Request: fold
Amino acid sequence: MASVAGKRAKKGILERLNSGEVVIGDGSFVFTLEKRGYVKAGLWTPEAAIEYPEAVRQLHMEYLRAGSNVMQTFTFFGGKDNLESKWKDVNEAACDLAREVAEKGDALVAGGISQTSLYKSHKNKLEIKEIFQQQLEVFTRKNVDFLITEYFEYCEEAEWAVEVLKESGKPVAATMCIGPEGDMHNLTPGECAVRLVKAGASIVGVNCRFGPKISLATVKLMKEGLEASGMKAHLMVQSLGFHTPDCGKGGFVDLPQYPFGLEPRVATRWDIQKYARDAYNLGVRYIGGCCGFEPYHIRAIAEELAPERGFLPDASEKHGSWGSGLSMHTKPWIRARAQKEYWKNLLPASGRPYFPSLSKPDA
Reply:
């Protein structure tokens, strides 16, 4: 393929994954922009793409600088069912913002759709597919590089989404917001993976709802299900940036701290380096994050996997590996922390002496 405007043509998502490259996704949008004052909690809809485009652009830039290879359109809950008359303008603006930033680096643009508000109340397949089709028409016109179905609790609805997106001829990644217990119809993770691949997904995995450890445990079950059925697909994981060992089947949304009291659960950068290494060792090559997953978490993935990727992200210019920058500190006990073993073995204190470390889900 010839280069455009003197630039080398970017490799597509499947070309990268087929060659064994590590693809680093982006991180939190609705949670991060809510904290910054641009998204309303509860609705979690992406009007900021047209109301505060500079805020969305800035967050994309932070992820790009941290090492992300994918700029996912800020179109979470962006269908007509949630945004009504605004849906088209929001989707178009989100595509433009993602493309603008992606062109500043070696990043691809992924058009993203998520579960509808209609499936639980009435499973009208044609109506739900029409919502997906509307978004796909925008993504096709804006020529996104590939497509992602994300945050689906029910495999059936995710299959419908994949079927629609596959009509574009572009690669499709499908992630579900499930844990090891499977979807809300009690399909196992392995069964979900198989059905999504049969529907046309080239990449399968999980996003959101659960922390790093549980997310990887779920992807492992997906991998085993695919292997048992003789099917192949690339694996993808985009976990929460929070620890959730006490979650039930519904994930972090059922915890009493959701959504405004989750800060004590935030993963450290070192936790995320372990997550990245564990994901890589599992065979996952598309690794990113979701709610609570900040740019410095993405940088942690990029730094951990720098030996495999062959380079560090731009954001590492201001970050010493494993705290090495502390070696210049004036206090000797802080200088002693400038080593991998210190941070790798640290058990962080919460600073809340009378608070429980775990909680009981409300559902």
